[in-house]
Amino acid sequence: MFKRVIALLTLALFASSALYAGQVKNYADINIGFAGMTLNNEYHITLANGAKAKAKELGVGIDVQAGDQHASAAAQLVIIENFLSNQVDGLIIVPSASEGLETALAKAKEQGVVVINADTLINREVAARAGLPNIPFYGTNNFEGAKLAGQYVREKFPKGSQTAILTGIEGHQNAADRRNGFIEGAGDAIQVVAEQTANWEVDQGYTAAQNIISAHPDLKLIFASNDNMGIGALRAVEEAGLKDKIAIVGFDAVSEALELVANGDFLATVAQYPSKMGELAVENIVKAIRGEPYADYIDTGVKVILKANVDEHKAYLAKYVD
């Protein structure tokens, strides 16, 4: 699914302002609403910081808001509606859920508000029904990132190793892509004995891992589709006294996960570049608002982080973490 969507988006890598053809505005007169998924997660804080840094560089206004949790879809919708009521020039959305956004997106189109999508893909059918079928997207190819992690597992684990997968919010394209990419990359090195959503949250990752460990005493590996869930899973593994028997692979490369990779508590994590997503979202939304050509789609890249390269990524991340 992700590959097909990206192929379609890539056909129009640089739009000629056909989607947003407003009047050119002075930078100081531009106001952007940034509706994040949450600001209680370092990854999303880093994304927002990238956006704020670029807005400061360009001299445009930006208001960053988000709900308390990743699944705070109702709170995010209120934030977006408030931005529209305040007549922002552009909206950057990191969606908690696509469902429920249709009315707000349609209102944005009616008002001539530029919409940019970062990190988590808005469902294209929802966007199309709102009259915005080609919302620009800047983010990770999550399938390929998870596939790289799976390939590393295939190199390190014997065939048929019992594996559990902790998935993100049901219906998120990111959640599906990470799950499917990891399975494809790992191939016959893994036998998936359990899958459970933990909604990207630490506490839910902990509870899910407790249940899985109890039901599968021969478990060898947990793939956590984000580091938060992996951190929760690690706590469950430690409490069960199984650190030497169960490995954990995460996704996102937040600071705590990097420390866990460095000391051997995580086998690996997959780095995304959320600050780059935020920077690109602001840079291109400003271009669109000003009637200039802008990028329709940019893959911001991934990298598997191991002990061998963890220090390099820690130095990179330190520039964007408060």
In short:
The protein is α/β, with parallel strands linked by helices. It has 12 helices and 14 strands. It has helices spanning 2-10, 42-58, 73-85, 102-111, 124-129, 142-156, 173-186, 202-215, 227-239, 255-262, 274-289, 310-318; strands at 14-15, 31-36, 61-66, 90-93, 114-118, 137-139, 161-167, 190-197, 221-224, 247-249, 269-271, 294-295, 297-299, 303-305.
Structure description:
- The chain has a six-stranded parallel beta sheet with strand order 3-2-4-5-6-13, with helices on both faces.
- The chain is α/β, with parallel strands linked by helices and 322 residues long.
- The protein has twelve helices and 14 strands.
- It has two domains: 2-139 and 273-299, Response regulator (Rossmann fold), CATH 3.40.50.2300; 142-271, Response regulator (Rossmann fold), CATH 3.40.50.
Indicate the CATH topology of the largest domain: Rossmann fold
Named CATH architecture of the largest domain: 3-Layer(aba) Sandwich
State the strand order across the main sheet.
3-2-4-5-6-13
Number of strands: 14
| Quaternary organisation of the protein chains | single chain
CATH superfamily of the largest domain: Response regulator
Distance N to C terminus: 35 Å
Poorly predicted ranges (pLDDT <50, ≥5 residues)? 1-18
Report the helical percentage.
40-55%
Q: What percent of residues are in strands? A: 15-25%
The ordered H/E elements are HEEHEHEHEHEHEHEHEHEHEHEEEH
The CATH class designation of the largest domain is Alpha Beta
Q: What's the overall geometry? A: elongated
The chain-level mean pLDDT equals: 91
Number of helices: 12
Supply the helix-strand structural class: alpha/beta
